[in-house]
Amino acid sequence: MIRTIDRMSEAEGAVLRSMFEARKRVFVDLLKWDVPVLAGTWEIDHFDDIDATYLILTDGESGHVASTRLLKTNRPHLLDSLFPELVDGPIPAGPTVREITRFCLDRSLRAAERRQARDWLVSALAVHALERGITHYTGVAELPWFEQIRDFGWNCLPLGTPMRVDGRVLAALVIAIDEETPELLASRGIWRTGMAVPAPIASEIDREHRA
What we know:
This protein has helices at residues 13-30, 78-82, 111-132, 143-150, 181-187, 199-210; strands spanning 2-5, 37-38, 42-43, 53-58, 64-72, 97-105, 136-142, 155-158, 163-165, 168-176. It is of the alpha+beta class. The strands form two sheets. Strands 1, 4, 5, 6, 7, 8, 9 and 10 form an eight-stranded mixed β-sheet that branches. Strands 2-3 form a two-stranded antiparallel sheet.
């Protein structure tokens, strides 16, 4: 199941701990990122504060399967604080723009499970945006991952020319979200049909696939 955890949620400490542990295994142990680790167990940085929102796919209890963190862009976030050189022109920001960070698939997943978890999390991002009035997502990704994100079918564009930063080629991106996004994701086989999209949008998708 997908859990949305933010400052308005009831405390879900076990789910968050499981997510931070998974982030440490992926970003520190596997990818060797030089980021803070708390108590040798949890990957947590200063953006993991009360204004962060987390979308977490769990195993039905508190076990982590996949997750991502969303940051508000009308306050300091990764793109404007750490990677502004990746953007040509103004950095998209405002009350309807969120930054996607720490997109994490659990290391225990097999290849087919990773694909399924990825698709559920991408679909959850679209639903979350449609429900919350979010019109755009921004983010920073290594070039191969950016190319995958772009190929999901939604309206994703680079914000500048990819650059090498600390040995990695990074790209900044922006994703526009609107009522057509679920259908665009469905056209590439990404959309998970169990996601609870707003009823008019879901009905339109069903009609398109029955045609």
